[in-house]
Amino acid sequence: MTDLTAQALDALDRLGVKDPFDPAGELSCHSPIDGSELGRLRGNTVQDVATIIGAAHAAFLDWRAVPAPVRGRLVRELGELLREHKAELATLISIEAGKITSESLGEVQEMIDICDLAVGLSRQLHGLTIATERPGHRMMEQWHPLGVVGVISAFNFPAAVWSWNAALAFVAGDAVVWKPSEKTLLTALACQSLAAEAARRVGAPAAITSILIGDHTVGAALVDDARVPLVSATGSTRMGKEVAPRVAARLGRSLLELGGNNAAIVAPSADLDLAVRGIVFSAVGTAGQRCTSLRRVIVHESIHDDLLARLASAYETLPIGSPLEPGTLVGPLIDQQAYEAFGAAVDQAQADGGTLVTGGQRAEVADGYYVHPAIIAMPSQTDIVKAETFAPLLYLLTCRDLDEAIALHNDVSQGLSSSIFTLDAREAELFLSATGSDCGIANVNIGPSGAEIGGAFGGEKDTGGGRESGSDAWKNYMRRTTNTVNYSAELPLAQGVEFA
Length: 500
Fold this sequence. Notes:
This protein is α/β, with parallel strands linked by helices. The protein has helices at about 5-15, 45-65, 70-85, 85-95, 100-120, 160-170, 185-200, 215-225, 235-250, 270-285, 305-315, 335-350, 385, 400-410, 425-430; strands at about 25-30, 35-40, 130, 135-145, 150, 175-180, 210, 230-235, 255, 260-265, 295-300, 355-360, 360-365, 370, 375, 395-400, 415, 415-420, 440-445, 455, 460, 470, 480-485. The chain has two domains: about 5-260 and about 465-480, Aldehyde Dehydrogenase, Chain A, domain 1 (3-Layer(aba) Sandwich), CATH 3.40.605; about 260-445, Aldehyde Dehydrogenase, Chain A, domain 2 (3-Layer(aba) Sandwich). Helices cover about 40% and strands about 20% of the residues. The strands form seven sheets. It has a seven-stranded mixed beta sheet, with helices on both faces. A five-stranded parallel beta sheet has the order 7-6-5-8-9, with helices on both faces. A three-stranded antiparallel beta sheet has the order 3-4-23, with no helix packed on it. Helix 3 (about 70-85) runs antiparallel to helix 6, helix 4 packs across helix 5 (about 100-120) and helix 5 runs parallel beside helix 6.
């Protein structure tokens, strides 16, 4: 047993999961920290999926009748359990996803925050009272529980993305069936254990929360099941384009959170000290493996050289190493495939005329796939720049004015997150306007990476159009009815229709 396996098992035990490993299991759990196998798990079959969804649907039929404020107690208990076990869950995230400890703790805090938001929402799932043209009538809308919600999540946020969906779905009156990434199964088992304990404490149906362990065939079975009216899928654009038509074929709903190719515009008026700090975190945090990671900087030609020198200097001092070690800022890439994609993109960008300013090489740390974050100055926005590379690879582009910067910014297929660094109020407002950023998230004087729970999270174009977390994202998990009540003794018809 490796030291990482021992740490993982200890954290799992504290989270209520006894040793889940099966030497004969077909699924291998690895840590990107050193590439070691943590253990093996036995997965679900396609037949299991049908049974689990059936049990979740039965649980939903009971849960939907529970008043929403009472349903909120489940999420409150989950939030308390997350507070109690924040350190253990963060340790698992670091071991499986390679995040530095601070970011892993931040991910668990994000889960706690969405629970807090959802508890409040449980008393505010409100509709509208609508003016009616018919005398003696009242028209209103109501929101009702939807059904079983299928959640498919990626490795980079192995716990938070599930919680965004689950917390809202639970207070909405839904059951949740979760297919986590095969790369972060232990974190998923821990989250499921906490959710199950929260359900037990409040007397909710046990099958209100379920997990599917398996490969793409298990995910496909979840996507295709007509008893799952909503599939929330987070991952690559390629994955989303496979999920969406399958759900649409049975007239289900998709909530898609897909790829990003996020940019920051740096205007001549920008506070460059602030810009450098925002750019570096956004570009190298989570080793560039966030959907909101900064991929492109579009800088005005008058400050290009100054900004480039500052960024290169900051990059050369970044501590790279095990995410469990204090002081580390850049952990490993998730696996060999990610490393090879990083190397191929660096090579292609240089072949396209780009200049490698710093980084781009493998960092010799343990046996994991660690790299030196790269900056490449590009003469133009080539195809490789327009593609999302899930790694710490930052392209620097030059512009002559804000109009050109916005045109470059929007000239990619993805539309998730964006930012501008400027002290000019007119530039900031233009960037946020309808003719500015075409992304679902637009920031001023902060980078594109990282979002607070209170706002709706998601993007446009190839990012999929979905919205999760705050604002009115809860409506995804419910169905709307429009009601008209006649409290008169007459029967007037709308639009003045006479039928007598």
